[in-house]
Write a structure and sequence with these properties.
270 residues; alpha+beta; L-fuculose-1-phosphate Aldolase; 17% strand
Length: 270
């Protein structure tokens, strides 16, 4: 078998997590990432018939039974992933009814997946029904997006429109907009179900006063979604207290969307 740390999906996962930490999005053990991988991607690196141990998921993810996931560990610091991937991440397969993770690699100190795993699996399930290519769910705590939830309306149309107006690229990068949840207790199936419901109509879901969930076909796309929304939020937080003299008008946003051939969220522009 080849060294799994040389597998392309593993290299990209480590790079992305390190970049998230360097951006200041994942302080301490804040944040989590799950990447769905295909069996043919791991066949050269790991014996999929060798289950190291079984870990109950605390959730019935039967729609994802038999799927393989690389997931960050609970209580693990993103800054340490690059130095000890096997301790801070785990690769597992969901069993036949989706209630047990069959660990194939990682969590080498006896740990397990993030406490937000139910939210991740529910979001994967929801996004796969919209886009069969979805493979990533990413959660982190970007400072400006958090700050914005304290001073801006949490109504989704208003929140989205503000972000679209802050940066020309926003309506192109996330034309489906941003959905928002009011503050809820994290690490529960309830917030997981609420997030998954929001994921049916947008790839970005803000958790007010907490962070954001992003979903995408690969790590680059998902990171880029959050990065763009966070940049827009940063601009907003810098100018929100100042008199607004200029903005990107709705007619401009429509022209932009047409030029880049993207379908923006219906009813969000005048």
């Amino acid at each position: 078998m080849k060294d799994i740390l040389t597998a392309p999906f593993m290299v990209e996962m480590i790079r992305t997590i390190t970049n998230m930490y360097n951006h200041g999005w994942d302080e301490r053990n804040g944040g989590n990432v799950s990447l769905m991988v295909n069996e043919n991607e791991i066949a050269e690196y790991i014996d999929v018939s060798n289950t190291l141990r079984e870990i109950p998921t605390g959730f019935n993810a039967s729609d994802l039974a038999g799927k393989y996931f690389l997931v960050t560990g609970t209580g693990k610091y993103f800054k340490n992933v690059q130095y000890d991937p096997a301790k801070n991440m785990g690769l597992f397969r969901l069993n036949g009814d989706g209630t047990t993770a069959e660990l194939l690699w990682g969590y080498s100190d006896g740990g397990k997946f993030t406490s937000e795993l139910p939210a991740h699996l529910m979001s994967h399930t929801a996004r796969l029904k919209v886009n069969l290519n979805n493979r990533v769910v990413m959660h982190c705590h970007p400072a400006n997006l958090l700050a914005m939830t304290y001073v801006h309306s949490l109504e989704e149309r208003e929140f989205t429109r503000t972000l679209w107006q802050m940066c020309t690229e926003c309506i192109v990068v996330f034309p489906d907009g941003v959905n928002v949840l009011p503050w809820m207790l994290c690490g529960t199936n309830e917030i997981g179900a609420a997030t998954a419901e929001k994921m049916k109509t947008a790839r970005l879901v803000v958790w007010a006063q907490h962070g954001i969930y992003g979903a995408g076909a690969d790590l680059d796309e998902t990171f880029g979604l959050i990065e763009t929304a966070e940049k827009a939020s940063e601009i907003y937080m810098k100018i929100a207290h100042l008199p607004m003299k200029n903005t990107i008008k709705d007619e401009d946003l429509k022209v932009l969307a047409e030029a880049f051939k993207v379908e923006y969220r219906k009813g969000y522009l005048e």
